[in-house]
Write a structure and sequence with these properties.
By secondary structure, this protein is of the alpha/beta class. Helix content is 38%, strand content 26%. The strands form four sheets. It has a six-stranded mixed sheet with strand order 2-1-3-8-7-6, with helices on both faces. Strands 14-13-15-16-17 form a five-stranded mixed sheet, with helices on both faces. Strands 10-11-9-12 form a four-stranded antiparallel sheet. A hairpin with a 2-residue loop joins strand 7 and strand 8. The longest helix is centred in the C-terminal third of the chain and has 19 residues.
């Protein structure tokens, strides 16, 4: 099933925070974002834009604010030769709508399911009425390069009539999308992949959510000590509901004085090796674990840019690590490329990869 998302109205397209809500809301329903488009109420081509999307996709979900909702509803009425009326809870909808709920209605426009939703910033989004047909799955592969993964998986995909797509999230993390052809068997393909990569595979799209669920299941706790990532590692962990069972708190320690006072990083380490060093991250890990009493700690310190780099430690130099309560640890030096945001993003992901390497028996082959 091919799905499309259309957002109509400048008042929505300029609101970054609300757009993020729309995207995450849509992804939670359809399990991926797919193709998305923007249009404006004043665009004279708007009826043709909607019509073309309907010809190309099986479903079209339209988010429109108060300012544009009535206009879009009229366009859909014209395209479907229908009329508008007030339905349940005073929702303006087509008279022949397949389904209606508050501020949302679903119609069939030729062979396409079209769902119009009223989306107003600062308000909760209404229900998406399209029932998705999910014939695809995602999984992550850890500690293997993309070419090797392709060589091993493509013959299996051919056997099960499954199309696979690979993307390198980080140097040591690949995400794979598997979609069944008409007579394909996604389940059989996934089972074969699990058997092949038993100590490298994490099912689903979000491997950090998997880590969180494993920690919760095993009644283990984690903490974070962050410098250049400034709370991003913790934010990624707390995106999963219920993580309060595995997370009491963490520390953002930007300045050297705070690293010293809050985490116990010694002046000797800071003066001799600097804040961007293996030794500093080791001390940050130890301090975080001691102060929190957690079972695991993750830490990161580096140069995210665009300034602050040197010949010895250019922009993109980041140290990340993981420490367990038993004293075992991993600290890695990264040489990352990209802008400030992308370097921080990569740093946070690499910190979690350190944890997977530290405890593979805990995090692989568990639900």
């Amino acid at each position: 099933m091919k799905n499309a998302l259309l957002i109509i109205g400048k008042d929505l397209s300029i609101n970054a925070a609300f757009l993020g809500y729309i995207f995450s809301f849509y992804k939670a329903h359809f399990k991926e974002l797919g193709e998305f488009n923007f249009a404006d109420k004043s665009d004279k081509e708007l009826p043709f834009i909607i019509e073309k999307l309907c010809l190309k996709f099986d479903t079209l979900t339209i988010f429109s604010s108060d300012e544009t909702y009535a206009t879009v509803a009229k366009i859909l009425a014209t395209l479907s030769s229908d009329k508008l009326e007030l339905k349940d809870e005073n929702t303006l909808a087509l008279s022949k709508a397949v389904k209606v709920s508050k501020d949302s209605f679903l119609i069939n426009l030729n062979t396409t399911q079209v769902n119009l939703l009223k989306a107003n910033p600062t308000c909760e989004l209404p229900e998406i009425l399209i029932k998705p047909n999910l014939n695809f799955e995602y999984f992550n592969l850890v500690d293997i390069d993309k070419e090797s993964a392709k060589i091993l998986l493509e013959p299996i995909a051919k056997t099960y009539e499954v199309q696979i797509h690979f993307s390198e999230i980080t140097k040591n993390l690949i995400i794979v999308r598997a979609e069944a052809n008409k007579f394909g068997q996604t389940k059989g393909f996934i089972e074969s992949a699990v058997n092949l990569f038993s100590n490298k595979i994490i099912l689903g799209r979000n491997f950090i959510e998997h880590i969180a669920k494993i920690l919760i299941k095993n009644e283990l706790k984690i903490t974070f000590a962050e410098s250049c990532t400034a709370g991003l590692i913790a934010a990624k962990f707390t995106a999963t509901a219920g993580v309060s069972a595995a997370f009491d708190g963490g520390l953002v320690t930007y300045a050297n004085g705070i690293k010293r006072d809050w985490l116990g990083v010694s002046d000797e380490v800071l003066k001799t090796y600097g804040a961007v060093s293996e030794q500093c991250v080791e001390a940050m890990l130890s301090g975080a674990l001691t102060s929190s009493g957690a079972d695991f700690a993750l830490a990161a310190s580096g140069v995210a840019g665009p300034g602050g780099g040197s010949e010895e430690k250019p922009v993109g130099t980041v140290f990340v690590g993981a420490l367990a309560k038993d004293g075992s640890s991993i600290v890695e030096r990264l040489n990352l490329k990209g802008d400030r945001g992308y370097i921080r993003e990569q740093s946070a992901l690499h910190a979690y990869l350190c944890l997977l390497k530290l405890r593979p028996r805990l995090f692989f082959r568990q639900i």
